[in-house]
Amino acid sequence: MSIIHTEITLRNALDVYNAEDGIIKEQDIRKTTVRALVDTGAWTLIINEKTQKKLGLRTVGMETGTLANGKSEKYDLAGPLEVRWKDRRTVCEALVLPDAEEVLLGAIPLEAMDLIIHPRKEEIVGAHGDQIIHSVK
Q1: Residue 121 lies in a domain
Q2: Contact indicator for 50, 67 with CB cutoff of 8 Å
Q3: Number of Cβ atoms within 10 Å of the Cβ of 21
Q4: What integer pLDDT is reported at residue 137 of this predicted model?
Q5: What 3 state SS string does the chain have?
Q6: Where in the sequence is the domain holding 64, given as residue range(s)?
Q7: Per the domain annotation, does 134 fall within a domain?
Q8: pLDDT of the chain along its 137 residues, tens only?
């Protein structure tokens, strides 16, 4: 199987809630659309500091992350952020690797959106079809 990428949109979840409450306008929600590497070996979403700053995400703690080379270190955990893929969404925190070259979409957000890698198509699909799981505004 080859390397799988997919397009996702990341939004500051606090901005989303503030827009829903009328505190800020919908167009003021900080967001970015990225081509993410799907990495089922990563437990969560991985972003870099530039993405954290662009989205205005708070550092909410630290977590240990083990890189592909086996090196374990403590990294900032940022959030909350909303992850959107087509008609699906979830809210999670992201591990911040300062020099990460790309966003990694890990197992927990994949599972939360009921997504799997289709081995023949070599793409992300709904685990139980492509019916709408969450209504996205």
Answers
A1: yes
A2: no
A3: 8
A4: 54
A5: CCCCEEEEEEEEHHHHHHHHCCCCCHHHCCEEEEEEEECCCCCCEEECHHHHHHHCCEEEEEEEEECCCCCEEEEEEEEEEEEEECCEEEEEEEEECCCCCCCEECHHHHHHCCEEEECCCCEEEEECECCCCCCCC
A6: 5-126
A7: no
A8: 578 999 999 999 999 999 999 999 999 999 999 999 999 888 999 999 999 999 999 999 999 988 778 888 999 999 999 999 999 999 999 999 998 999 999 999 999 999 989 888 888 888 887 655 454 55
Number of Cβ within 10 Å of residue 36's Cβ equals: 24
Count of structural domains, the chain: 1
Whether residue 62 lies inside any domain: the answer is: yes
Interior CA angle at 45 toward 75 and 27, to 5°?
110
Question: 86 lies in a domain?
Answer: yes
Q: What is the CATH number of the domain that holds 55?
A: 2.40.70.10
Calpha distance 88→91 (Å, rounded):
11
Nearest to 113 by CA among 73, 95, 86, 81: 86
Does residue 106 contact residue 93 with C-beta atoms inside 8 Å? Answer: no
25 touches 16 (CB < 8 A): no
